[in-house]
Design brief:
heterodimer; A: about 300 residues; mainly alpha; MetI-like fold; 13 helices; about 85% helix; B: about 270 residues; alpha/beta; 8 helices; 10 strands
Chain lengths: ~300, ~270
Protein backbone atom coordinates (compact mmCIF):
# COMPACT_ATOMS: atom_id res chain seq x y z
CA UNK A 1 0.00 0.00 0.00
CA UNK A 2 2.61 2.49 1.07
CA UNK A 3 4.71 1.42 -1.88
CA UNK A 4 1.87 2.06 -4.28
CA UNK A 5 1.29 5.41 -2.71
CA UNK A 6 4.90 6.25 -3.33
CA UNK A 7 4.67 5.30 -7.00
CA UNK A 8 1.52 7.30 -7.38
CA UNK A 9 3.25 10.37 -6.04
CA UNK A 10 6.13 9.90 -8.40
CA UNK A 11 3.89 9.26 -11.37
CA UNK A 12 1.82 12.31 -10.70
CA UNK A 13 4.91 14.45 -10.35
CA UNK A 14 6.19 13.11 -13.62
CA UNK A 15 3.04 13.67 -15.62
CA UNK A 16 3.01 17.23 -14.47
CA UNK A 17 6.56 18.10 -15.41
CA UNK A 18 6.08 16.45 -18.79
CA UNK A 19 2.96 18.54 -19.27
CA UNK A 20 5.28 21.56 -19.50
CA UNK A 21 3.04 24.09 -17.76
CA UNK A 22 3.25 24.63 -14.05
CA UNK A 23 -0.21 23.36 -13.10
CA UNK A 24 -2.12 24.98 -10.29
CA UNK A 25 -3.76 21.71 -9.27
CA UNK A 26 -6.47 22.08 -11.89
CA UNK A 27 -8.09 18.91 -10.72
CA UNK A 28 -11.43 19.20 -12.36
CA UNK A 29 -9.82 18.60 -15.71
CA UNK A 30 -7.01 16.38 -14.52
CA UNK A 31 -7.33 13.14 -16.43
CA UNK A 32 -6.27 10.22 -14.31
CA UNK A 33 -5.53 8.00 -17.26
CA UNK A 34 -2.50 10.05 -18.18
CA UNK A 35 -1.16 9.46 -14.69
CA UNK A 36 -1.74 5.80 -15.23
CA UNK A 37 0.10 5.63 -18.52
CA UNK A 38 2.95 7.48 -16.88
CA UNK A 39 3.10 4.73 -14.31
CA UNK A 40 3.19 2.02 -16.95
CA UNK A 41 5.97 3.82 -18.71
CA UNK A 42 8.16 3.96 -15.64
CA UNK A 43 7.60 0.25 -15.11
CA UNK A 44 8.59 -0.63 -18.65
CA UNK A 45 11.78 1.42 -18.47
CA UNK A 46 13.41 -1.34 -16.42
CA UNK A 47 14.82 -3.67 -19.12
CA UNK A 48 14.47 -7.47 -18.86
CA UNK A 49 18.15 -8.22 -18.31
CA UNK A 50 19.69 -11.04 -20.35
CA UNK A 51 16.61 -13.15 -20.89
CA UNK A 52 18.12 -14.83 -23.93
CA UNK A 53 21.34 -15.49 -22.03
CA UNK A 54 19.37 -17.32 -19.37
CA UNK A 55 17.88 -19.56 -22.04
CA UNK A 56 21.26 -20.26 -23.59
CA UNK A 57 22.62 -21.36 -20.22
CA UNK A 58 19.55 -23.48 -19.60
CA UNK A 59 19.79 -25.32 -22.94
CA UNK A 60 23.54 -25.84 -22.49
CA UNK A 61 22.87 -27.35 -19.08
CA UNK A 62 20.31 -29.77 -20.51
CA UNK A 63 22.66 -30.81 -23.31
CA UNK A 64 25.55 -31.26 -20.87
CA UNK A 65 23.58 -33.41 -18.43
CA UNK A 66 22.05 -35.61 -21.14
CA UNK A 67 25.44 -35.94 -22.83
CA UNK A 68 27.16 -36.94 -19.59
CA UNK A 69 24.38 -39.42 -18.89
CA UNK A 70 24.76 -40.91 -22.37
CA UNK A 71 28.53 -41.31 -22.01
CA UNK A 72 28.53 -42.60 -18.43
CA UNK A 73 25.43 -44.77 -19.00
CA UNK A 74 27.19 -46.67 -21.77
CA UNK A 75 29.99 -47.69 -19.36
CA UNK A 76 27.56 -49.46 -17.03
CA UNK A 77 25.87 -52.84 -17.40
CA UNK A 78 22.50 -52.05 -19.10
CA UNK A 79 20.80 -54.04 -16.33
CA UNK A 80 21.67 -51.39 -13.75
CA UNK A 81 21.43 -48.22 -15.75
CA UNK A 82 20.20 -47.10 -19.12
CA UNK A 83 21.07 -44.06 -21.18
CA UNK A 84 19.08 -41.55 -23.26
CA UNK A 85 19.52 -43.04 -26.74
CA UNK A 86 18.54 -46.53 -25.55
CA UNK A 87 15.54 -45.07 -23.76
CA UNK A 88 14.53 -43.25 -26.94
CA UNK A 89 14.68 -46.52 -28.90
CA UNK A 90 12.61 -48.29 -26.23
CA UNK A 91 10.15 -45.42 -26.32
CA UNK A 92 9.53 -45.72 -30.07
CA UNK A 93 8.92 -49.46 -29.59
CA UNK A 94 6.49 -48.92 -26.73
CA UNK A 95 4.68 -46.19 -28.63
CA UNK A 96 4.59 -48.28 -31.81
CA UNK A 97 3.10 -51.29 -30.05
CA UNK A 98 0.46 -49.08 -28.44
CA UNK A 99 1.38 -50.41 -25.01
CA UNK A 100 2.40 -46.99 -23.72
CA UNK A 101 -0.81 -45.31 -24.86
CA UNK A 102 -2.99 -47.99 -23.27
CA UNK A 103 -1.08 -47.64 -20.00
CA UNK A 104 -1.22 -43.86 -20.11
CA UNK A 105 -4.95 -43.75 -20.81
CA UNK A 106 -5.67 -46.21 -18.03
CA UNK A 107 -3.63 -44.15 -15.57
CA UNK A 108 -5.15 -40.90 -16.72
CA UNK A 109 -8.69 -42.19 -16.32
CA UNK A 110 -8.06 -43.08 -12.68
CA UNK A 111 -6.22 -39.82 -12.13
CA UNK A 112 -8.91 -37.61 -13.61
CA UNK A 113 -11.81 -39.29 -11.81
CA UNK A 114 -10.02 -39.40 -8.46
CA UNK A 115 -8.69 -35.86 -8.73
CA UNK A 116 -12.15 -34.57 -9.54
CA UNK A 117 -13.63 -36.31 -6.48
CA UNK A 118 -10.78 -35.06 -4.31
CA UNK A 119 -11.26 -31.47 -5.54
CA UNK A 120 -14.99 -31.38 -4.92
CA UNK A 121 -14.68 -33.03 -1.50
CA UNK A 122 -11.61 -31.04 -0.48
CA UNK A 123 -12.99 -27.66 -1.45
CA UNK A 124 -16.42 -28.29 0.07
CA UNK A 125 -15.05 -29.61 3.37
CA UNK A 126 -12.33 -26.96 3.41
CA UNK A 127 -14.87 -24.16 3.04
CA UNK A 128 -17.06 -25.53 5.83
CA UNK A 129 -14.14 -26.16 8.19
CA UNK A 130 -12.65 -22.75 7.49
CA UNK A 131 -15.88 -20.85 8.01
CA UNK A 132 -17.60 -22.68 10.85
CA UNK A 133 -15.71 -23.10 14.09
CA UNK A 134 -17.88 -26.02 15.22
CA UNK A 135 -17.21 -28.01 12.05
CA UNK A 136 -13.54 -27.30 12.62
CA UNK A 137 -13.71 -28.47 16.24
CA UNK A 138 -15.43 -31.67 15.13
CA UNK A 139 -12.91 -32.50 12.43
CA UNK A 140 -9.55 -30.85 13.05
CA UNK A 141 -8.07 -33.78 15.00
CA UNK A 142 -9.07 -36.21 12.26
CA UNK A 143 -7.77 -34.02 9.45
CA UNK A 144 -4.46 -33.48 11.23
CA UNK A 145 -4.07 -37.16 12.04
CA UNK A 146 -4.83 -38.29 8.50
CA UNK A 147 -2.66 -35.59 6.95
CA UNK A 148 0.26 -36.65 9.13
CA UNK A 149 -0.19 -40.34 8.31
CA UNK A 150 1.69 -41.53 5.23
CA UNK A 151 -1.47 -42.75 3.58
CA UNK A 152 0.34 -45.12 1.22
CA UNK A 153 0.72 -47.25 4.34
CA UNK A 154 -2.95 -48.16 4.25
CA UNK A 155 -2.87 -49.34 0.64
CA UNK A 156 -2.81 -53.06 1.61
CA UNK A 157 -5.97 -52.43 3.63
CA UNK A 158 -7.61 -50.57 0.75
CA UNK A 159 -6.89 -53.53 -1.52
CA UNK A 160 -8.53 -55.80 1.05
CA UNK A 161 -11.61 -53.58 0.93
CA UNK A 162 -11.90 -52.93 -2.77
CA UNK A 163 -9.80 -55.60 -4.46
CA UNK A 164 -7.27 -54.91 -7.20
CA UNK A 165 -9.60 -53.04 -9.53
CA UNK A 166 -10.13 -49.44 -10.41
CA UNK A 167 -12.08 -48.68 -7.26
CA UNK A 168 -9.06 -49.30 -5.05
CA UNK A 169 -6.85 -47.12 -7.22
CA UNK A 170 -9.39 -44.34 -7.38
CA UNK A 171 -9.80 -44.45 -3.61
CA UNK A 172 -6.06 -44.26 -2.97
CA UNK A 173 -5.50 -41.38 -5.37
CA UNK A 174 -8.51 -39.52 -3.92
CA UNK A 175 -7.39 -39.66 -0.30
CA UNK A 176 -3.84 -38.71 -1.21
CA UNK A 177 -4.92 -35.66 -3.22
CA UNK A 178 -7.69 -34.70 -0.81
CA UNK A 179 -5.71 -33.33 2.10
CA UNK A 180 -3.56 -30.69 0.42
CA UNK A 181 -6.69 -29.35 -1.26
CA UNK A 182 -8.73 -29.40 1.94
CA UNK A 183 -6.06 -27.86 4.14
CA UNK A 184 -5.25 -25.07 1.67
CA UNK A 185 -8.91 -24.24 1.17
CA UNK A 186 -9.34 -24.01 4.94
CA UNK A 187 -6.33 -21.73 5.16
CA UNK A 188 -7.76 -19.60 2.36
CA UNK A 189 -11.01 -19.07 4.21
CA UNK A 190 -9.20 -18.27 7.46
CA UNK A 191 -6.92 -15.78 5.75
CA UNK A 192 -9.63 -13.65 4.22
CA UNK A 193 -8.56 -10.14 5.29
CA UNK A 194 -10.83 -8.83 8.01
CA UNK A 195 -11.10 -5.48 6.21
CA UNK A 196 -12.75 -7.19 3.25
CA UNK A 197 -15.35 -8.78 5.51
CA UNK A 198 -15.83 -5.27 6.92
CA UNK A 199 -16.66 -4.05 3.43
CA UNK A 200 -19.36 -6.69 3.17
CA UNK A 201 -20.73 -5.73 6.59
CA UNK A 202 -20.64 -2.02 5.81
CA UNK A 203 -22.68 -2.59 2.66
CA UNK A 204 -25.15 -4.72 4.62
CA UNK A 205 -24.34 -8.02 2.90
CA UNK A 206 -26.02 -11.11 4.34
CA UNK A 207 -24.11 -14.27 5.31
CA UNK A 208 -24.64 -15.92 1.92
CA UNK A 209 -23.41 -12.83 0.07
CA UNK A 210 -20.37 -12.53 2.29
CA UNK A 211 -19.60 -16.17 1.58
CA UNK A 212 -20.04 -16.06 -2.18
CA UNK A 213 -18.85 -12.54 -2.94
CA UNK A 214 -16.00 -12.14 -0.47
CA UNK A 215 -14.82 -15.35 1.17
CA UNK A 216 -14.96 -17.59 -1.89
CA UNK A 217 -13.08 -15.32 -4.31
CA UNK A 218 -10.62 -14.34 -1.61
CA UNK A 219 -9.83 -18.00 -0.85
CA UNK A 220 -9.57 -18.94 -4.52
CA UNK A 221 -5.80 -18.55 -4.85
CA UNK A 222 -5.30 -20.81 -1.85
CA UNK A 223 -7.60 -23.40 -3.41
CA UNK A 224 -5.56 -23.28 -6.60
CA UNK A 225 -2.38 -23.84 -4.60
CA UNK A 226 -4.10 -26.79 -2.96
CA UNK A 227 -5.03 -28.19 -6.36
CA UNK A 228 -1.47 -27.78 -7.60
CA UNK A 229 -0.07 -29.65 -4.58
CA UNK A 230 -2.89 -32.16 -4.91
CA UNK A 231 -1.92 -32.97 -8.52
CA UNK A 232 1.58 -33.93 -7.42
CA UNK A 233 0.28 -36.15 -4.66
CA UNK A 234 -2.30 -37.68 -6.97
CA UNK A 235 0.38 -38.77 -9.43
CA UNK A 236 2.42 -40.35 -6.63
CA UNK A 237 -0.70 -42.06 -5.35
CA UNK A 238 -1.53 -43.36 -8.79
CA UNK A 239 1.89 -44.92 -9.38
CA UNK A 240 2.06 -46.48 -5.94
CA UNK A 241 -1.45 -47.85 -6.31
CA UNK A 242 -0.53 -49.33 -9.67
CA UNK A 243 2.57 -50.90 -8.15
CA UNK A 244 0.40 -52.72 -5.65
CA UNK A 245 -2.42 -53.67 -7.94
CA UNK A 246 -0.06 -54.02 -10.92
CA UNK A 247 -2.57 -54.77 -13.61
CA UNK A 248 -2.84 -51.66 -15.71
CA UNK A 249 -1.40 -48.23 -16.14
CA UNK A 250 2.03 -46.68 -16.26
CA UNK A 251 2.88 -48.05 -12.82
CA UNK A 252 2.17 -51.56 -14.08
CA UNK A 253 4.50 -50.95 -17.06
CA UNK A 254 7.28 -49.92 -14.71
CA UNK A 255 6.83 -53.05 -12.64
CA UNK A 256 6.62 -55.25 -15.73
CA UNK A 257 9.83 -54.02 -17.35
CA UNK A 258 11.57 -53.83 -14.01
CA UNK A 259 10.83 -57.52 -13.52
CA UNK A 260 12.10 -58.24 -17.05
CA UNK A 261 15.37 -56.38 -16.30
CA UNK A 262 14.59 -54.18 -19.33
CA UNK A 263 15.82 -50.98 -17.73
CA UNK A 264 15.60 -48.85 -20.86
CA UNK A 265 11.90 -49.67 -21.34
CA UNK A 266 11.30 -49.13 -17.63
CA UNK A 267 12.51 -45.54 -17.97
CA UNK A 268 9.92 -44.76 -20.65
CA UNK A 269 6.84 -44.69 -18.38
CA UNK A 270 8.92 -42.89 -15.75
CA UNK A 271 9.61 -40.13 -18.26
CA UNK A 272 5.96 -40.01 -19.22
CA UNK A 273 5.07 -39.60 -15.53
CA UNK A 274 7.58 -36.80 -15.22
CA UNK A 275 6.12 -35.02 -18.23
CA UNK A 276 2.63 -35.60 -16.87
CA UNK A 277 3.60 -34.08 -13.53
CA UNK A 278 5.19 -31.04 -15.15
CA UNK A 279 2.29 -30.61 -17.59
CA UNK A 280 -0.45 -30.81 -14.98
CA UNK A 281 1.35 -28.51 -12.54
CA UNK A 282 1.89 -25.99 -15.32
CA UNK A 283 -1.76 -26.24 -16.33
CA UNK A 284 -2.92 -25.54 -12.77
CA UNK A 285 -0.45 -22.68 -12.47
CA UNK A 286 -1.74 -21.17 -15.72
CA UNK A 287 -5.28 -21.57 -14.43
CA UNK A 288 -4.17 -19.89 -11.21
CA UNK A 289 -2.82 -16.87 -13.07
CA UNK A 290 -5.93 -16.70 -15.16
CA UNK A 291 -8.36 -17.00 -12.26
CA UNK A 292 -6.45 -14.94 -9.72
CA UNK A 293 -4.30 -12.45 -11.63
CA UNK A 294 -4.06 -10.12 -8.64
CA UNK A 295 -2.21 -12.79 -6.65
CA UNK A 296 0.08 -13.76 -9.48
CA UNK A 297 1.36 -10.20 -9.77
CA UNK A 298 1.84 -9.85 -6.04
CA UNK A 299 4.34 -12.69 -5.90
CA UNK B 1 -27.98 26.10 7.28
CA UNK B 2 -30.13 25.43 10.30
CA UNK B 3 -33.22 25.57 8.12
CA UNK B 4 -32.03 22.41 6.36
CA UNK B 5 -33.23 19.07 7.61
CA UNK B 6 -31.19 16.93 9.96
CA UNK B 7 -29.65 14.01 8.07
CA UNK B 8 -27.82 12.41 10.95
CA UNK B 9 -28.63 12.73 14.63
CA UNK B 10 -26.28 11.26 17.23
CA UNK B 11 -27.71 11.34 20.74
CA UNK B 12 -25.93 10.40 23.94
CA UNK B 13 -23.95 7.60 22.34
CA UNK B 14 -21.69 5.77 24.77
CA UNK B 15 -19.36 2.85 24.32
CA UNK B 16 -17.09 0.92 26.63
CA UNK B 17 -14.66 -1.71 25.43
CA UNK B 18 -13.85 -4.73 27.49
CA UNK B 19 -10.09 -5.15 27.24
CA UNK B 20 -8.71 -8.58 27.88
CA UNK B 21 -5.20 -9.17 29.21
CA UNK B 22 -4.46 -5.53 29.88
CA UNK B 23 -1.39 -4.17 31.53
CA UNK B 24 -2.69 -4.07 35.07
CA UNK B 25 -5.41 -6.65 35.27
CA UNK B 26 -6.75 -9.63 33.41
CA UNK B 27 -9.69 -7.69 32.22
CA UNK B 28 -10.65 -4.08 32.51
CA UNK B 29 -13.15 -1.69 31.07
CA UNK B 30 -12.08 1.05 28.72
CA UNK B 31 -14.64 3.78 28.21
CA UNK B 32 -14.13 5.06 24.66
CA UNK B 33 -17.17 7.28 24.18
CA UNK B 34 -19.26 9.11 26.76
CA UNK B 35 -22.58 10.68 25.92
CA UNK B 36 -21.69 12.01 22.50
CA UNK B 37 -24.37 14.09 20.77
CA UNK B 38 -24.34 16.13 17.59
CA UNK B 39 -26.29 16.62 14.36
CA UNK B 40 -25.31 16.77 10.72
CA UNK B 41 -27.57 18.78 8.44
CA UNK B 42 -28.37 18.10 4.83
CA UNK B 43 -25.56 18.99 2.43
CA UNK B 44 -23.13 19.72 5.24
CA UNK B 45 -19.58 18.51 5.62
CA UNK B 46 -18.84 17.89 9.29
CA UNK B 47 -15.46 16.71 10.52
CA UNK B 48 -14.72 14.74 13.66
CA UNK B 49 -11.30 15.62 14.95
CA UNK B 50 -9.29 14.79 18.02
CA UNK B 51 -6.10 13.16 19.22
CA UNK B 52 -5.68 9.46 18.66
CA UNK B 53 -7.68 7.45 21.14
CA UNK B 54 -10.54 9.94 21.31
CA UNK B 55 -12.83 7.37 19.74
CA UNK B 56 -13.57 9.23 16.53
CA UNK B 57 -13.14 6.19 14.33
CA UNK B 58 -15.06 4.06 16.80
CA UNK B 59 -17.88 6.58 16.68
CA UNK B 60 -17.93 6.48 12.89
CA UNK B 61 -18.01 2.69 12.90
CA UNK B 62 -20.84 2.76 15.44
CA UNK B 63 -22.80 5.09 13.17
CA UNK B 64 -22.20 2.72 10.26
CA UNK B 65 -23.32 -0.23 12.39
CA UNK B 66 -19.99 -2.05 12.29
CA UNK B 67 -19.70 -1.75 16.08
CA UNK B 68 -22.58 -1.98 18.52
CA UNK B 69 -23.12 0.96 20.84
CA UNK B 70 -23.86 0.52 24.54
CA UNK B 71 -26.27 3.39 24.86
CA UNK B 72 -27.76 6.29 22.98
CA UNK B 73 -29.57 6.70 19.71
CA UNK B 74 -28.58 7.28 16.12
CA UNK B 75 -31.09 8.48 13.53
CA UNK B 76 -30.61 8.82 9.81
CA UNK B 77 -33.27 10.90 8.12
CA UNK B 78 -35.23 10.69 11.36
CA UNK B 79 -35.25 6.90 11.45
CA UNK B 80 -33.39 5.13 14.26
CA UNK B 81 -30.67 2.79 12.99
CA UNK B 82 -28.75 0.00 14.68
CA UNK B 83 -27.20 -2.08 11.92
CA UNK B 84 -25.48 -1.36 8.64
CA UNK B 85 -27.81 -0.12 5.94
CA UNK B 86 -28.01 1.42 2.53
CA UNK B 87 -28.74 4.84 3.99
CA UNK B 88 -25.09 5.17 4.99
CA UNK B 89 -22.10 4.84 2.66
CA UNK B 90 -18.73 4.07 4.22
CA UNK B 91 -15.39 5.19 2.83
CA UNK B 92 -12.59 3.20 4.43
CA UNK B 93 -9.21 4.48 5.57
CA UNK B 94 -7.42 1.86 3.50
CA UNK B 95 -9.32 1.59 0.24
CA UNK B 96 -10.23 -2.06 0.96
CA UNK B 97 -11.15 -2.69 -2.65
CA UNK B 98 -11.93 -6.29 -3.55
CA UNK B 99 -8.74 -7.23 -5.43
CA UNK B 100 -10.47 -9.65 -7.81
CA UNK B 101 -12.86 -7.00 -9.09
CA UNK B 102 -12.18 -4.28 -11.60
CA UNK B 103 -12.69 -0.69 -10.50
CA UNK B 104 -16.14 -0.75 -12.08
CA UNK B 105 -17.12 -4.05 -10.45
CA UNK B 106 -15.93 -2.69 -7.10
CA UNK B 107 -18.19 0.33 -7.48
CA UNK B 108 -21.03 -2.02 -8.42
CA UNK B 109 -20.58 -4.06 -5.23
CA UNK B 110 -23.26 -2.40 -3.10
CA UNK B 111 -25.77 -2.33 -5.94
CA UNK B 112 -25.11 -5.97 -6.69
CA UNK B 113 -25.97 -6.87 -3.09
CA UNK B 114 -29.28 -5.08 -3.56
CA UNK B 115 -30.05 -7.03 -6.70
CA UNK B 116 -29.88 -4.11 -9.12
CA UNK B 117 -29.76 -5.36 -12.72
CA UNK B 118 -26.38 -5.76 -14.37
CA UNK B 119 -27.01 -3.08 -16.97
CA UNK B 120 -28.28 -0.51 -14.54
CA UNK B 121 -25.47 -0.94 -12.06
CA UNK B 122 -22.90 -0.95 -14.85
CA UNK B 123 -24.15 2.39 -16.10
CA UNK B 124 -24.29 3.83 -12.62
CA UNK B 125 -20.78 2.65 -11.79
CA UNK B 126 -19.43 4.09 -15.02
CA UNK B 127 -20.96 7.50 -14.39
CA UNK B 128 -19.64 7.54 -10.81
CA UNK B 129 -16.16 6.58 -11.92
CA UNK B 130 -16.35 9.46 -14.34
CA UNK B 131 -17.46 11.72 -11.50
CA UNK B 132 -14.38 10.81 -9.46
CA UNK B 133 -12.08 11.23 -12.45
CA UNK B 134 -11.53 7.57 -13.31
CA UNK B 135 -13.79 7.23 -16.33
CA UNK B 136 -11.09 5.64 -18.46
CA UNK B 137 -9.78 3.30 -15.77
CA UNK B 138 -12.98 1.40 -15.09
CA UNK B 139 -11.62 -1.98 -16.21
CA UNK B 140 -8.38 -1.67 -14.24
CA UNK B 141 -7.86 -3.87 -11.21
CA UNK B 142 -6.96 -2.42 -7.81
CA UNK B 143 -3.34 -3.59 -7.99
CA UNK B 144 -2.99 -1.56 -11.18
CA UNK B 145 -4.22 1.61 -9.48
CA UNK B 146 -2.20 4.04 -7.38
CA UNK B 147 -3.19 4.74 -3.78
CA UNK B 148 -4.97 7.93 -4.75
CA UNK B 149 -6.90 6.22 -7.53
CA UNK B 150 -7.91 3.43 -5.17
CA UNK B 151 -9.37 6.02 -2.81
CA UNK B 152 -11.35 7.50 -5.67
CA UNK B 153 -12.85 4.07 -6.34
CA UNK B 154 -13.48 3.71 -2.61
CA UNK B 155 -15.44 6.98 -2.71
CA UNK B 156 -17.36 6.01 -5.85
CA UNK B 157 -18.29 2.67 -4.29
CA UNK B 158 -19.84 4.41 -1.30
CA UNK B 159 -21.65 6.91 -3.53
CA UNK B 160 -23.06 4.11 -5.71
CA UNK B 161 -25.71 3.06 -3.20
CA UNK B 162 -26.87 6.69 -3.07
CA UNK B 163 -26.69 6.94 0.72
CA UNK B 164 -28.30 9.71 2.77
CA UNK B 165 -24.92 10.36 4.34
CA UNK B 166 -21.31 9.51 3.52
CA UNK B 167 -19.14 8.38 6.42
CA UNK B 168 -15.46 8.86 5.67
CA UNK B 169 -12.81 7.37 7.95
CA UNK B 170 -9.52 9.28 7.48
CA UNK B 171 -9.65 8.41 3.79
CA UNK B 172 -6.65 10.49 2.76
CA UNK B 173 -4.35 9.85 5.72
CA UNK B 174 -2.32 7.14 3.99
CA UNK B 175 -1.66 9.23 0.88
CA UNK B 176 1.32 11.40 0.15
CA UNK B 177 0.85 15.13 0.73
CA UNK B 178 0.38 16.06 -2.91
CA UNK B 179 -2.17 13.36 -3.68
CA UNK B 180 -3.97 14.23 -0.46
CA UNK B 181 -4.44 17.87 -1.50
CA UNK B 182 -5.69 16.82 -4.92
CA UNK B 183 -8.22 14.47 -3.38
CA UNK B 184 -9.40 17.08 -0.88
CA UNK B 185 -10.19 19.37 -3.79
CA UNK B 186 -11.83 16.51 -5.62
CA UNK B 187 -13.98 15.67 -2.63
CA UNK B 188 -15.23 19.24 -2.42
CA UNK B 189 -16.06 19.17 -6.12
CA UNK B 190 -17.89 15.83 -5.84
CA UNK B 191 -19.77 17.10 -2.83
CA UNK B 192 -20.78 20.24 -4.74
CA UNK B 193 -22.00 18.18 -7.69
CA UNK B 194 -23.89 15.58 -5.67
CA UNK B 195 -24.97 17.67 -2.69
CA UNK B 196 -24.10 14.76 -0.39
CA UNK B 197 -24.00 15.09 3.36
CA UNK B 198 -20.61 14.03 4.70
CA UNK B 199 -19.27 13.09 8.10
CA UNK B 200 -15.49 13.06 7.87
CA UNK B 201 -13.07 11.70 10.44
CA UNK B 202 -9.56 13.12 10.35
CA UNK B 203 -6.64 13.98 12.61
CA UNK B 204 -5.37 16.64 10.23
CA UNK B 205 -6.40 20.12 11.42
CA UNK B 206 -5.86 21.83 8.05
CA UNK B 207 -7.86 19.15 6.28
CA UNK B 208 -10.73 19.54 8.72
CA UNK B 209 -10.86 23.34 8.40
CA UNK B 210 -10.44 23.24 4.64
CA UNK B 211 -13.26 20.76 4.03
CA UNK B 212 -15.83 21.39 6.71
CA UNK B 213 -18.83 23.56 7.48
CA UNK B 214 -18.46 22.53 11.09
CA UNK B 215 -15.89 20.65 13.13
CA UNK B 216 -16.67 18.48 16.10
CA UNK B 217 -13.60 18.63 18.35
CA UNK B 218 -13.32 15.58 20.57
CA UNK B 219 -11.31 14.89 23.69
CA UNK B 220 -10.00 11.52 24.77
CA UNK B 221 -10.41 9.03 27.61
CA UNK B 222 -13.29 8.81 27.43
CA UNK B 223 -14.06 10.25 24.03
CA UNK B 224 -16.40 13.20 24.35
CA UNK B 225 -17.24 16.38 22.51
CA UNK B 226 -15.25 19.41 23.60
CA UNK B 227 -16.65 21.95 21.20
CA UNK B 228 -18.41 22.23 17.89
CA UNK B 229 -16.83 24.93 15.74
CA UNK B 230 -18.38 26.73 12.78
CA UNK B 231 -16.05 27.38 9.87
CA UNK B 232 -16.93 30.73 8.31
CA UNK B 233 -15.36 30.32 4.85
CA UNK B 234 -17.76 30.10 1.95
CA UNK B 235 -17.80 27.42 -0.76
CA UNK B 236 -16.25 26.97 -3.25
CA UNK B 237 -13.23 27.50 -1.08
CA UNK B 238 -9.96 29.09 -1.94
CA UNK B 239 -7.06 26.69 -2.44
CA UNK B 240 -5.63 25.36 0.79
CA UNK B 241 -2.24 27.15 0.54
CA UNK B 242 -4.03 30.48 0.14
CA UNK B 243 -6.51 29.70 2.89
CA UNK B 244 -3.69 28.80 5.23
CA UNK B 245 -2.37 32.33 4.96
CA UNK B 246 -5.71 33.75 6.11
CA UNK B 247 -5.62 35.19 9.64
CA UNK B 248 -8.99 33.74 10.47
CA UNK B 249 -7.86 30.28 9.37
CA UNK B 250 -4.87 30.55 11.67
CA UNK B 251 -7.05 31.70 14.53
CA UNK B 252 -9.39 28.73 14.12
CA UNK B 253 -6.46 26.39 13.84
CA UNK B 254 -4.89 27.77 17.02
CA UNK B 255 -8.13 27.45 18.97
CA UNK B 256 -8.61 23.88 17.78
CA UNK B 257 -5.03 22.95 18.54
CA UNK B 258 -5.38 24.22 22.09
CA UNK B 259 -8.67 22.39 22.57
CA UNK B 260 -7.07 19.16 21.46
CA UNK B 261 -3.84 19.63 23.34
CA UNK B 262 -5.45 20.61 26.61
CA UNK B 263 -6.88 17.16 27.01
CA UNK B 264 -6.45 16.15 30.63
CA UNK B 265 -3.59 13.68 31.07
CA UNK B 266 -4.49 10.06 31.13
CA UNK B 267 -5.16 8.69 34.60
CA UNK B 268 -2.49 6.10 35.37
Amino acid sequence: MSQETATSGKAEGKSKSSGGVEPELDVTTLDLTTLDSAMEETEELAPPTGKSLIWVVRVLSIVAVLGAWEILGRQVDPLFMSYPSAIAVAATELIGSGELLVGLLSSLRTLVVAFFIASVLGITLGLLIGRYRLVDAATDWLVNALYATPLVAIIPLVILWFGLGNTAKTFIVTILALFPILINTTAGVRNVPKQLIDVGDAFAANERQIFTKIILPSALPYMMTGLRLGVGRAIIGMVVAEFFTAITGLGALIVKYGNQYDTASMFVPIFVLMLLGIGLSLAVRRAEEWIAPWKATEE
Amino acid sequence: MTTKSIKLAVENVSKTFRVRGGQYSDEHLLPVLRRVSFDVHEGEIVSLIGESGCGKTTLLRIIQGLIRRDAGEIRVDGKPVAEAGRDRGFVFQQANLLPWRSARANVEFGLELQGVSRRERGERAQSLLKLVGLGAASEQFPHQLSGGMQQRVNLARALAIDPAILLMDEPFSALDAQTREILQLELLRVQRETGKTILFVTHDLDEAIYLSNRIVVMGARPGRIKRIMEIPFSYPRRDLPELRADAEFQEIRRTMWELIRNAPPMAA
